[in-house]
């Protein structure tokens, strides 16, 4: 076990926490640690699952490799001309999910419940949460998507971490590799940090939205409920309308506007924005005010066109 991990476990014990050591324990200190270990942990977890085939692989679909490594829950469907590659690791497809014709999934990969895969390419190391929608020839690689993420159209998402209720508009793409092939640096409260990772994408918080053709640079973090336009080359605070790459000053997204958008988005999926969620978003708005001030975010109306 790494020295840093041992040190932290010792501190937890000193504070009265019960800590049990386990083989293969991974310490997550930074957001990028989740991406760094995603592929290995996913492979380990899926390999421990019992083989089952409660769903349906329709005639004409292709499963490359040991078919027992395709774990299908009841109600999952893989349509003809879909391609599932389990040679590099298992693939899990949850109940009610549909992998449509023209889609490809490469293991290890987890596709949650009620997911629509409509002609997307899901590469190895991807965790796709419940209710997500993927399509349009879009590509994912070594990324974590929480529930109800829309990536319905063309664009690449790699080595990234995405929260709930995020909408990635058509042609939204992130970079996960620098032109110099050097390690990616990220900004943290303790300053700029070298992540030590050659490949690292972006981190997008809950309820964030991108507009058509948004381009996000490596290592960028995007806050809660923010709206992105154009090129995004530095971190975006929560509740910010960001179009700096298009020559516009960042503008604060009004809290009530953000809440109304969240209600509309969740209602489209038959989900209600609960009071507790509203309270959390209100608190996040207050806690992140200083971040917007430091980033030069102004109050007022946002206009993309003159």
Describe the structure.
With 306 residues, this protein is α/β, with parallel strands linked by helices. The protein has a single domain, classed as Hexapeptide repeat proteins (UDP N-Acetylglucosamine Acyltransferase, domain 1), CATH 2.160.10.10. The chain has 5 helices and 29 strands. A hairpin with a 2-residue loop joins strand 20 (185-188) and strand 21 (191-194). It starts with a helix and ends in a 12-residue tail after the last helix.
**Which architecture per CATH?**
3 Solenoid
Q: What Rg do the Cα atoms give?
A: 20 Å
Major sheet: 8 strands, parallel
Principal-axes shape call: globular
Average pLDDT rating: 93
User: Which CATH top level class fits?
Assistant: Mainly Beta
Main attributes of the structure:
alpha/beta, 5 helices, globular, about 300 residues, 8-stranded parallel sheet, UDP N-Acetylglucosamine Acyltransferase, domain 1, 6-stranded parallel sheet
